[in-house]
Amino acid sequence: MEEDIYLHKLNLRNVKPTAIRLLILRTMMEMNRAVSQPDLEEKLQTVDKSTIFRTISLFLDRHLIHAIDDGSGALKYAVCSDDCTCSVSDQHVHFYCEGCHRAFCFRSQAVPVVQAPEGFVLYGVNYVLKGLCPACAARPDKD
């Protein structure tokens, strides 16, 4: 049953499965790309903006989703894989399409390992490639 996937993901991160949380998680997974809070607000117009914000915050805190700063001015969020702990070793490459302004996770592409100098403590990596996604690259009107 399709709903079992969402319940499994919430239970794995100790998130109580309310109707709104299931709706937001399902929407994020169905969009099949990283989404911003405004993207979710547009898609879920019947859900209060503050509820979406609180749910995103909870999901981030429980490592159910990760945030992506793709340089567009709005953080994007993507659902983590079941084995992700959001540690530096779990970080992967992201791609920002300058045509449609969508961000995509390249889960199979790990970020390059960088050794910080002594005394520095590394908590995260933001590695974003920029260009055109296949749909935008195929458009005849591309720049």
Automatic annotation (TrEMBL):
Keyword Calcium listed? The answer is: no
Cofactor(s), names only, from the UniProt record: Zn(2+)
User: What stretches pass through the bilayer?
Assistant: none
What highest taxon heads this organism's lineage?
Bacteria
One biological process term in Gene Ontology: regulation of secondary metabolite biosynthetic process
| Gene3D superfamilies hit by this protein | 3.30.1490.190, Winged helix-like DNA-binding domain superfamily/Winged helix DNA-binding domain (1.10.10.10)
Q: Which InterPro entries match?
A: FUR, Fur_C, WH-like_DNA-bd_sf, WH_DNA-bd_sf
UniProt keyword DNA-binding, yes or no: yes
- Molecular functions (GO terms): DNA-binding transcription factor activity; transcription cis-regulatory region binding; zinc ion binding
Q: Which family does it belong to?
A: Belongs to the Fur family.
Query: Which protein is depicted?
Result: Transcriptional regulator, Fur family
